[in-house]
Write a structure and sequence with these properties.
Blueprint lengths: L4 E4 L2 H5 L7 E6 L32 H18 E11 L4 H11 L2 E10 L15 E8 L11 H7 L8 E4 L23 H11 L5 E4 L6 H8 L3 E6 L2 H12 L10 H9 L4 H6 L8 E4 L6 E4 L5 E3 L2 E3 L1 H9 L10 E5 L2 E4 H12 L3
Parallel strand pairs: 1-8, 2-3, 2-7, 4-6, 7-8
Antiparallel strand pairs: 3-5, 4-5, 9-10, 9-13, 10-11, 11-12, 13-14
The structure holds S-adenosylmethionine.
């Protein structure tokens, strides 16, 4: 299977070429079937730049539903049991799409509301300004409980507060909005990278494969690349493929958050101190000391225990005794000299984890 690639063609047909249970995440931003019947004008008579593209038009609700059943069926087939799918839509289509997903057996995890901070006004004043879109997030079926959700990392991303299912993000404008040679939007529905950042960060790990069957300008591919994930895009219009390719090829820097999931996981892996001694990363007889005083020294024993004066115990126990506290995280307490450099033993633990469990 080709990865980091854009496939040209109809997604229903091209999805059939992707093996069963082979992708980790699907993000789908399908046609919304907006059914725009007439051109809309602002009060000053300028034309509203709405979504009137051919690719958004369907002859009937039945035709739209059949189309969604077909691509969603393929998406479910190619999704790994540990994977999940996000589908975005507006009030025009999301209820139909949601019903179809439930009928196909997808298991809804969240309906996330994208609250647009800069929505297009309702120029005619006939109803409320529509300021939201909905993202339905599902696992493959009711039995697939081991989907990826990086809860801690999203909390960290959200300033140490649990992230809710309402996301306040502006429409894609300014520098980020891709324009054609005529200065007009290159695509009518380019999504903001911030939206995809939350989707991909929350539900994938590094090197996971993210599939987008309606690739457009390649927002999913661009964000996947910046976050160290792989992508597969499918798009019918060559014009958009060219834009997406140029966009993705020009990315040279990754985002800092790309490493967050791995760092979090590393923290959760338990490593006995004696494993580092067994592998000679720290040797029996080495001296450990504390940040406060080089003179507070303990000696590493062959079995991974520490000897401090006449007391023998774990790195944690001896640390607690020295600080006169009930507990101590020894990994963050003890230092060692390596090649004339003072290192926290936790750094050696990270090195050990990277060597043994590629996180
Ligand atoms: C809503 S837009 C996606 C925009 C994209 N998320 C972005 O940020 O640029 C839907 C895209 O799907 C493409 N498309 C529509 N029907 C398709 C089909 N049957 N197979 C593949 N692509 C299709 C359209 O050409 C359009 O670019």
């Amino acid at each position: 299977m080709l990865i980091d690639t854009i496939i040209h063609g109809d997604c229903i047909e091209k999805l059939k070429t992707i093996p069963d249970s082979s992708v980790d995440l699907i993000f789908a931003d399908p046609p919304y079937n907006m059914q725009l019947k007439s051109v809309l004008y602002r009060p000053n008579n300028t034309k509203v730049d709405g979504v009137d593209d051919q690719w958004d038009k369907f002859a009937s609700f039945k035709e739209y539903d059949d189309f969604c059943i077909a691509w969603l069926t393929e998406c479910q087939r190619v999704l790994k049991d540990t994977g999940s799918i996000w589908v975005i839509g507006s009030y025009h289509n999301i209820f139909r799409v949601g019903t179809i997903m439930l009928n196909l057996g997808f298991w809804i995890l969240n309906d996330v509301t994208w609250y647009k901070t800069n929505p297009m006004p309702n120029f005619l004043g006939t109803r409320f300004t529509n300021a939201t879109e909905t993202l339905i997030w599902c696992s493959k079926n009711a039995n697939t409980k081991k989907y990826t959700f990086n809860h801690k990392m999203m909390k960290k991303y959200n300033g140490d507060k649990q992230m809710t299912s309402v996301w306040q993000i502006g429409l894609c404008i300014g520098e980020e909005r891709i324009k054609g040679d005529n200065g007009k939007k290159a695509h009518s529905t380019q999504k903001p990278e911030e939206l995809l950042k939350r989707v991909i960060l929350s539900s994938t790990n590094r090197d996971d494969i993210v599939l987008d069957p309606f690739f457009g300008t390649g927002t999913t591919g661009a964000v996947a690349k910046k976050l160290g994930r792989k992508f597969i895009g499918i798009e019918r219009e060559q014009e958009y493929i060219d834009i997406a390719r140029k966009r993705i090829n020009s990315i040279t820097k990754s985002w800092a958050e790309a490493d967050w999931v791995e760092e979090e996981k590393e923290k959760q892996i338990k490593v006995p101190f004696e494993n580092l001694v067994k592998e000679n990363i720290i040797k029996a007889g080495d001296v450990l000391y504390t940040r406060k005083s080089y003179n507070t020294q303990a000696f590493v024993l062959e079995n991974g225990a520490l000897q401090y004066k006449n007391t023998i115990g774990s790195i944690h126990k001896i640390g607690a005794i020295i600080q006169q506290t009930s507990s101590c995280n020894g990994w963050k307490f003890w230092y060692i000299l390596k090649n004339s450099k003072s290192l926290l033993i936790d750094d050696l633990r990270s090195e050990y984890i990277r060597k043994h469990n590629r996180v």
